């Protein structure tokens, strides 16, 4: 063989995937106009942009309208049981660290029956991406009030209006110590893509609340915040490294003083930094929407680096194998105390 010819030892790179490659052959069955369609579209578009191979993806869900998500992705997927998607995702990611694992859940599935499991996923910082579809209602079971329903909401299970205090998903995630926390909106495709990209690239649990409209049982639940004619004045985007400025004319700002956030002139606005170890400023911002005349924050509330549970667990496994050998399952089963049943 001539000296200037080097044999090829690597396989050719596969052709880039487009958005269609991530679509399964299943009919997408959500109500016409449901915000879930735009979330599905954004995720498929993002994965195509990032070029994530389909065999390295796994989508896990519990029960609810959002939990149909794995059927519509041409990847690995698991439709699990009510509220337990975080437990399944923990096992999947720990057993196969090479997989990029996503959870699709709703405000009922993830914060009611699944609240305990979500808490432990977040505090452990498992390298999993969580999409929490928040429509402030139970849609699949036909319109009962949910953990995020606002007080006074009349539903089939609260005909005189809910008297519950609503769970705020952002504050819940902050309280659990999540390392990446963000909020976006189903009708804001560009914003949603940017937030989901940041979540996908984060090492650790990435928790993304998505304002998602339920056209049948809670239509217009976020209109006073996200409707096109008001959204510039009703939302403030938390962009890392940028001043907290908002409004159609960018004529208002947010200043954080100690434990308070207030509306100020743009020149006085605080420059946002979600990478600080303290979550105090993010907590203050998460409470802003409850103050009359204040905007609802969207964007990235927190993004810090911290050790992940799955890496720590696998290091322990590797250390045990190095010390004692790989072992056999049969030996483990027959070890320890035994009883003879006659």
Q: Provide the helix percentage.
A: 25-40%
Cα end-to-end separation: 73 Å
CATH class designation? Alpha Beta
Q: What's the arrangement of strands in the largest beta sheet?
A: 2-1-3-4-6-5-11-7
Number of helices: 11
Runs with pLDDT <50, length 5+? none
- Count of the separate structural domains: 1
Q: What's the pLDDT, averaged over the residues? A: 94
**Topology as H/E string?**
HEEHEHHEHEHEHHEEEEHEHH
User: What gross morphology would you assign?
Assistant: globular
Total beta strand runs: 11
Could you characterize the architecture of this molecule?
The model has no long low-confidence stretch (mean pLDDT 94). The longest helix has 16 residues. The chain has one domain: Rossmann fold, CATH 3.40.50.970. The N and C termini lie far apart (73 Å). The strands form two sheets. Strands 2-1-3-4-6-5-11-7 form an eight-stranded mixed beta sheet, with helices on both faces. The protein has a three-stranded antiparallel beta sheet with strand order 8-9-10. Helix 2 runs parallel beside helix 4. By secondary structure, the protein is α/β, with parallel strands linked by helices.
SSE layout:
Elements: H1 36-50, E1 57-61, E2 76-79, H2 85-95, E3 100-106, H3 107-113, H4 115-124, E4 128-134, H5 169-175, E5 180-185, H6 189-201, E6 206-211, H7 223-226, H8 231-234, E7 235-238, E8 245-246, E9 252-257, E10 260-264, H9 280-286, E11 296-303, H10 309-324, H11 329-333
Helix pairs in contact: 1-6, 2-4, 2-10, 3-4
């Amino acid at each position: 063989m001539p000296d200037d010819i080097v044999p090829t030892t690597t396989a050719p790179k596969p052709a880039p995937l487009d958005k269609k490659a991530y679509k399964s052959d299943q009919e997408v069955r959500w109500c016409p106009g449901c915000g879930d369609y735009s979330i599905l579209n954004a995720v498929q578009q993002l994965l195509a942009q990032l070029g994530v191979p389909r065999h390295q993806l796994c989508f896990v869900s519990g029960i609810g309208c959002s939990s149909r998500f794995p059927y519509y992705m041409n990847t690995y997927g698991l439709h699990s049981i009510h509220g337990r998607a975080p437990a399944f995702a923990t096992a999947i990611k720990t057993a196969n660290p090479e997989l990029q694992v996503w959870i699709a859940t709703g405000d009922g599935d993830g914060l009611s029956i699944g609240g305990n499991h979500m808490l432990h996923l977040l505090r452990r910082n498992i390298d999993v991406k969580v999409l929490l579809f928040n429509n402030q209602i139970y849609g699949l079971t036909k319109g009962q009030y949910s953990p995020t329903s606002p007080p006074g909401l009349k539903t089939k299970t609260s005909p005189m209006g809910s008297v519950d205090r609503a769970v705020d998903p952002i504050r819940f995630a902050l309280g659990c110590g999540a390392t990446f926390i963000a909020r976006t909106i189903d009708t804001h495709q560009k914003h949603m893509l940017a937030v989901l990209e940041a979540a996908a690239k984060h090492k650790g649990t990435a928790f993304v609340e998505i304002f998602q409209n339920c056209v049948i049982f809670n239509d217009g639940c976020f209109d006073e915040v996200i409707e096109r004619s008001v959204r510039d004045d009703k939302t403030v985007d938390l962009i890392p490294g940028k001043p907290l400025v908002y409004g159609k004319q960018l004529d208002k700002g947010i200043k954080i003083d100690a434990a308070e956030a207030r509306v100020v002139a743009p020149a006085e606005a605080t420059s946002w930094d979600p990478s600080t170890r303290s979550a105090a400023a993010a907590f203050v911002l998460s409470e802003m929407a409850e103050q009359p005349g204040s905007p609802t924050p969207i964007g990235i509330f927190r993004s810090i680096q911290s050790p992940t549970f799955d890496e720590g667990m696998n290091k322990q496994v590797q250390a045990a194998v190095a010390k004692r050998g790989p072992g056999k399952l049969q030996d483990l089963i027959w070890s320890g105390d035994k009883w003879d049943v006659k």
